[in-house]
Design brief:
Largest sheet: 7 strands, mixed
CATH architecture of the largest domain: 3-Layer(bba) Sandwich
Number of domains: 3
Strand order of the largest sheet: 8-14-9-10-11-12-13
CATH topology of the largest domain: FAD/NAD(P)-binding domain
Number of helices: 15
Shape: globular
Bound molecules: flavin-adenine dinucleotide
CATH class of the largest domain: Alpha Beta
Number of strands: 16
Strand content: 15-25%
Radius of gyration: 24 Å
CATH superfamily of the largest domain: FAD/NAD(P)-binding domain
Length: about 475
């Protein structure tokens, strides 16, 4: 906070960056900005929750929720790959290994500590505003951010780091807005709190959210049957140590989904013969995934989303071995029942819910009687369907638009929001999963930390550049 005229004069010569969202990307961006600017950039971190660095992924208290990436790849800093591991050895377990899948709550503590360390080095440069940003508008060369509390903030640059959006509701014929047995968003605090231990539940969707919900329920002593239903009945695959596979994609590789699939299948066969396996082949694509995505035409990207995405997701987004083993043993013991098919009807009465679905294999209509239906279909990415005041407002003011595939927001290669007329902003940036349309692979730490680091350099670069044109900066109203 500004306390006297000297403070104010000093602040006036600084670039103020407001970051909306204090999850992984927002918090590490704040830390990177302090670290790389030597404290010459001041940061306002707007997070509606009380804790920084948690977001949806790391706010869990359940220590059985494990990271799905090895500790060796979870450092917040791309230029210091051991950073998380060293922290975990000091603060969690001295014997932690690079190949461990550590608890997610621990990772949340780590991210908080990353920022805390930079705050101690550069005191007074970050303000955590616990509030929700509901709109952003341009006022001359600065941005005005309105908060739910009514407070207004001004900044020279704004980065939106909103994370994944809540799940969209699947179309369930027969369900009404008053359905009492339906949990629309399992990530919402307390959403699973009133599921009693002896109920039977149906999880709609069989991806990472379902796995997480199943682990949460069992962790709380839930004894009922967990039904998991999705169109294909595919659960995420489990990580397994395999020999590395050399990179095989290059600029001469096919630029069609069909051609790429053929290439991958050939590589998988070769990897299996060489005592490696499909996991190593998929992993060897990871450093090139964004480039591959960019090399595909819009038509090919659509083809990928329509035909390949469900298979890609379960092979690429794998779960920790211990989590995979727990799910597998519950399936074997009949505690989890996996179903493949399309939901046809949802009927709620005083005894619970009857869900009718058409079985994928038999084509017969099947009925499931459960006490609760939990929506585990994963985050909604179509911004037109997301009920979020900030997003709606940005689009209404034409400051942002969805990307052509409705996977997030349209952004330039450096993350600047593209407005409704197609012009990149010089004020507003987006980071994280909302960049999915342009990058595809933009949800996990190994990619996000690179984005954070690049955006930080860009913003610090603006600071240096603008200091040379000082009169512009000193006129900027800093209202925090
Ligand atoms: C359950 C789960 C497990 C995961 N596990 C892993 C893993 O093991 N390894 C990995 O690499 N990745 C994992 N991920 C991927 C995850 O997306 C990233 O690791 C990372 O958390 C994304 O960071 P983010 O900052 O974009 O979003 P988040 O961390 O979700 O942060 C977004 C923040 O923005 C805040 N916010 C949103 N709107 C507003 C607003 N208008 N005003 C103020 N605040 C706002 C939210 O409260 C939230 O705190 C997981 C994801 C999930 C959902």
């Amino acid at each position: 906070m500004l306390t006297n005229q000297t403070d104010r004069d000093q602040k006036m010569s600084q670039l103020t960056v407001a970051i909306v969202g204090g999850g992984f990307t927002g918090t590490t961006l704040a830390a990177q900005l302090l670290r790389s600017s030597g404290g010459s950039v001041s940061v306002v971190l707007i997070e509606r929750g009380a804790r920084l660095g948690r977001g949806v992924a790391y706010s869990t208290e359940c220590t059985e929720h494990l990271l799905n990436v090895r500790a060796r790849n979870m450092s917040a800093y791309p230029d210091d790959p051991e950073h998380f591991l060293e922290w975990a050895r000091l603060n969690h377990a001295p014997g932690a290994s690079a190949d461990d899948y550590l608890p997610r709550p621990l990772y949340g503590q780590y991210i908080t500590s990353v920022l805390q360390q930079e705050i101690e080095r550069h005191p007074g440069q970050v303000e955590h505003v616990q509030d929700e940003a509901v709109s952003i508008s341009r006022v001359g060369e600065t941005a005005e951010i309105r908060l739910r509390s009514g407070r207004r903030l001004f900044a020279d640059r704004v980065v939106i780091a909103l994370g994944n959006f809540p799940p969209g509701d699947p179309r369930l014929q027969g369900r009404t807005p008053h359905s009492l047995c339906y949990v629309s968003n399992p990530w919402k605090a307390g959403a699973l709190g009133d599921v009693s231990h002896d109920e039977n539940v149906l999880l709609v969707g069989s991806g990472l959210t379902s796995v997480d919900v199943a682990i949460t329920l069992r962790g709380r002593g839930f004894r009922g049957t967990i039904h998991i239903l999705s169109r294909r009945g595919l659960l995420p695959q489990t990580h397994k140590a395999t020999a590395l596979w050399p990179p095989f994609w290059d600029e001469q590789s096919p630029r069609t989904v069909r051609g790429l699939l053929r290439l991958i299948r050939t590589q998988v066969k070769a990897a299996e013969k060489a005592d490696s396996g499909w996991r190593a082949v998929i992993d060897s694509l990871r450093p090139f995934t964004q480039e591959i995505w960019r090399s595909l035409s819009l038509t090919e990207r659509r083809r990928f989303l329509r035909h390949v995405r469900p298979y890609w997701d379960v092979h690429r987004h794998r779960i920790a071995p211990a989590v995979g083993a727990r799910i597998a043993s519950q399936i074997q013991d009949g505690e989890i029942e996996l179903h493949a098919g399309r939901i046809k009807a949802y009927a709620e009465d005083i005894d619970g819910v009857e869900v009718t679905y058409r079985d994928r294999e038999s084509r017969q209509l099947e009925r499931l009687r459960v006490d609760r239906v939990i929506n585990c279909t994963g985050p909604e990415s179509d911004c037109r369907k997301v009920d979020d005041p900030l997003l709606t407002n940005l689009m209404r003011q034409k400051l942002a638009r969805p990307d052509p595939l409705f996977l997030g927001l349209d952004v330039s290669p450096d993350g600047a929001l593209i407005d409704a007329h197609g012009a990149p902003s010089n004020l507003l940036y987006a980071i994280g999963p909302v960049r999915k349309g342009s990058l595809w692979e933009t949800i996990a730490v190994p990619e996000l930390r690179v984005q954070v680091s690049e955006l930080s350099s860009l913003l610090v670069g603006f600071d240096a550049w603008e200091k040379e044109r000082l009169p512009f900066v000193t006129e900027v109203p800093v209202a925090i």
